[in-house]
Write a structure and sequence with these properties.
Layout (H helix, E strand, L loop, with lengths): L1 H9 L2 E7 L8 E6 L2 E7 L11 E6 L2 H5 L4 E5 L5 H4 L2 H5 L4 E7 H14 L5 E6 L4 E4 L3 E8 L6 E8 L2 E5 L17 H10 L1 E7 L15 H11 L4 E4 L5 H13 L3 E5 L1 H12 L24 E5 L9 H6 L13 E4 L8 H13 L3 E3 L14 H11 L1 E7 L3 H13 L15 E5 L2 E5 L6 E5 L5 E2 L1 H13 L1 E9 L9 E5 L7 H18 L1 H4 E2 L7 E2 L1 H20 L4 E9 L103 H9 L1
Parallel strand pairs: 3-5, 5-6, 6-7, 11-12, 12-18, 13-15, 13-16, 14-15, 16-17, 23-27
Antiparallel strand pairs: 1-2, 1-19, 2-3, 4-21, 8-9, 9-10, 10-11, 19-20, 21-22, 23-24, 25-26
Helix pairs in contact: 6-12, 7-8, 15-17
This protein binds zinc ion (ZN) (2 copies).
The site of one zinc ion (ZN) has 6 residues, from helix 3.
Length: 683
């Protein structure tokens, strides 16, 4: 069995992306031949709206964990987070015998591995241009210098038993690179001459016609804005854009301004890049931020993080007026030398608004010529295809439409449509010297990490967080005896729930759900053991009530709050609470037995966790947090008794669920419409 398997595997090269396709971020690719696995990059992505409390998104690495004994090594193309940000995390799960990569990227990786305590799980090997390394029995990789927004970046020529694959990494063709390190076009052409089996190429800007302007082109524009500034200059850009930061430091020197740095990553990257010689700036150029206010405004340049409107970054804090050292002055010129990553646009424009309201001059946007991309446009992509002349072509590093556009560019360059594949994460590209096809996919998906980076936020936790954020929570405390009777009115408590239902209705619905469960499910949930007290599946009872009430609220009020039912068991024989449900017949159709299975239609857009609401529904109002429980049976009918806490659910003599607490503390009333506003701001 094993020998047949390895025979079929040996016949072809399998290329398996686990991240980076149909998205920008978490680029992670596996090359497999025979028993050898080689990884190329392992990045992270940042969470999208609705991923509450998640700060890092990783690819699902089940495939790698299952095959860890076959991992022979890893290749790193460059030091951007979407290419190296996942490595330290993965090393907690499996060893990687050796990681080859550029000096700058590996030195940044060292810090991350130290932090994660995984330095002993691999060996780091620095490579230079045209170095060739052997990984396992079957892979030989040449590092080809390329140009990108990050310094010390490489494209790869991967030679395998079935032929050579060119894996571009992130690139643009910049013929006047800031650091003087030119794209090694000769090497690409060399492989093109020898014959390239397949090209895997960066698709980020596949939709943009023309050539990507060189990084140097922003220099005169930044120079002009800095020279014209009357007061302080504040510039924000990506810390990892080494070339951009180099130019800004050069311009500060040229314009006689001292530089103050803000933001952890800005300080770290500049320190590392200067230490390794990727950035040249005299020590005297820098002033510690605590002393920056001693420097005249006209001679000050502040370089900081926050170009993406990240809430905790320096510039965002300054825009909110809560930075300890730096306050905005009306004479400030603030320059955004970056463009918003899709998804960050709203945070960025909000930050710009705040800074403008504070009176600063803000320079931003495409028309100013103060930012260029690090990824090639269509003409750059054509040049790559022209130099490498691949037999097969797979666009990578991009969202779906970018991959499709890039494939079309390939067709226009003579790559036959049949020789092109649009793939997704987990797809397997099987290559032989004269064929390319999709094999059976492997498991791929996402793994969400919370702030601590140790905890994994699974799909269930994320769904609960989304429900809490969007629709709030309903808690129910039900007192039920072991002989299956409701013995006290249930207490219902709403937090953050926007609903048209009044307290009385909620309370009635809850009673009905409990009664329904007791009448229709009790037999299945309770096991009578002869001679001893019955065994009740209390968790099952709780779940049944939660599901039933959830369905009713979803259908009748178009809300989907998290529902938490806690049962306080009472001994058999406890006097039964009759409830009001019988007195007021349910005129609405039952929440049960209609509309198919219990776990049926959700009306939830799984993509972003936003609930589609019925636009014709009555205007929502906020039910402030309170206990809705009906009073003791004697007082039934005097509802709504919402303002006062219900009396203790009598007469449960031996309360088993002692930990159950129903909060009744009044909360400040939430202004109506807050939930909706938040949602539209996040959209
Ligand atoms: Zn990059
Ligand atoms: Zn990238």
């Amino acid at each position: 069995m094993t020998s047949t398997l390895s025979k079929t595997k040996q016949a072809c090269l399998r290329v398996i992306p686990l991240g980076g396709l149909h998205e920008i971020g978490k680029n992670t690719c596996v090359f497999e031949y025979g028993d050898d696995l080689m990884l190329v990059d392992a990045g992270l992505a940042f969470p999208s709206d609705g991923m509450h409390g998640v700060n890092v998104v990783m690819p699902d690495t089940s495939f790698l964990r299952e095959n860890q004994s076959r991992i022979r090594g890893m290749i790193v193309t460059h030091g951007h987070e979407d290419h190296i940000g996942g490595i330290a995390h993965h090393l907690k799960n499996f060893d990687i015998p050796v990681i080859y990569g550029p000096r700058l990227a590996l030195s940044m990786l060292t810090g991350k591995m130290d932090e994660a305590g995984v330095t002993d799980r691999t060996t780091l090997q620095t490579v230079g241009p045209r170095d060739v390394v052997k990984v396992g029995q079957h892979f030989s990789v040449e590092f080809i210098r390329n140009t990108h927004s990050m310094a010390d970046s490489f494209s790869l020529a991967i030679t395998t038993p079935v032929g050579t694959v060119i894996f571009t990494g992130d690139f643009k063709f910049d013929h006047t690179p800031v650091d003087g390190e030119h794209f090694d076009l000769a090497r690409l052409a060399h492989y093109g001459d020898q014959g390239v089996l397949c090209l895997f190429s960066d698709s980020t800007n596949a939709e943009v016609p023309g050539y990507c302007p060189p990084e140097r082109s922003v220099f005169p524009n930044l120079d002009r804005h800095i020279a014209e500034a009357e007061g302080r200059v504040i510039i924000t850009t990506f810390a990892s854009s080494i070339h951009r930061v180099s130019m800004i430091l050069e311009l500060a020197l040229k314009n006689g301004r001292k530089v103050g740095l803000l933001g952890r990553s800005m300080l770290n990257v500049i320190a590392k890049a200067r230490e390794l010689g990727y950035m040249r700036a005299p020590d005297e150029l820098f002033v510690p931020i605590k002393q920056i206010n001693d420097v005249p405004d006209r001679e000050t340049l502040l370089l900081m993080t926050g170009s993406q409107g990240e809430p905790l970054a320096a510039l965002s804090r300054i825009s909110r007026g809560d930075h300890p050292q730096v306050k905005v002055k009306t004479s400030d010129t603030i320059i955004f030398s970056a463009s918003p990553i899709p998804g960050n646009t709203i945070s960025v424009v909000n930050t710009i608004d705040k800074l403008m309201i504070l009176g600063a001059k803000v320079v931003y946007g495409k028309g100013e010529g103060i930012h260029v991309s690090g990824h090639g446009f269509q003409e750059d992509q054509k040049l790559m295809l022209a130099l490498t002349r691949p037999k097969y072509f797979v666009p990578v590093h991009g969202e779906h439409r970018m991959l499709v556009k890039h494939a079309r560019t390939g067709h226009s360059m003579g790559v036959p449509e049949d020789n092109t594949l649009i793939i997704n994460n987990g797809d397997v590209v099987e290559l032989t010297p004269d064929s390319m096809r999709k094999g059976d996919p492997v498991k791929a998906g996402i793994e969400l990490l919370d702030q601590s980076r140790n905890g994994i936020v699974d799909a269930r936790v994320l769904k609960e967080r989304q429900q809490l954020a969007v629709d709030g929570i309903v808690t129910i405390l039900a007192a039920i005896s072991t002989d299956g009777a409701m013995v006290a009115p249930p207490r219902v408590n709403l937090r953050g729930v926007v609903t048209t239902a009044d307290a009385r209705k909620m309370s009635l619905w809850t009673e009905r759900e409990i009664k329904w469960v007791l009448e229709n499910r009790w037999k299945q949930l309770c096991r009578n053991v002869e001679g001893s007290s019955p065994e009740v599946d209390w968790m099952g009872v709780q779940r049944e009530v939660e599901v039933g009430l959830g369905r009713r609220m979803r259908r009748e009020m178009q809300v989907e709050p998290l529902i938490l039912c806690l049962v306080q068991p009472a001994p058999g024989g406890t006097p039964v609470y009759k409830g009001r449900a019988d007195a007021e017949p349910d005129t609405r159709p039952s929440s049960r037995g209609r509309g198919g299975g219990r776990h049926g239609g959700h009306g939830r857009d799984s993509g972003n966790g936003h609930v589609r609401r019925d636009r014709n529904a009555a205007p929502a109002r906020v039910v402030p947090s309170r206990v809705i429980g009906t009073p003791a049976p004697a007082a039934a009918g005097s509802a709504p008794a919402a303002a006062t806490p219900a009396p203790t659910p009598a007469p449960a003599k031996e309360p088993v669920a002692a930990a159950v607490v129903v909060t009744s503390a009044p909360e400040p009333e939430m202004p109506a419409g807050r939930t909706r506003r938040r949602r539209s701001a996040a959209a």
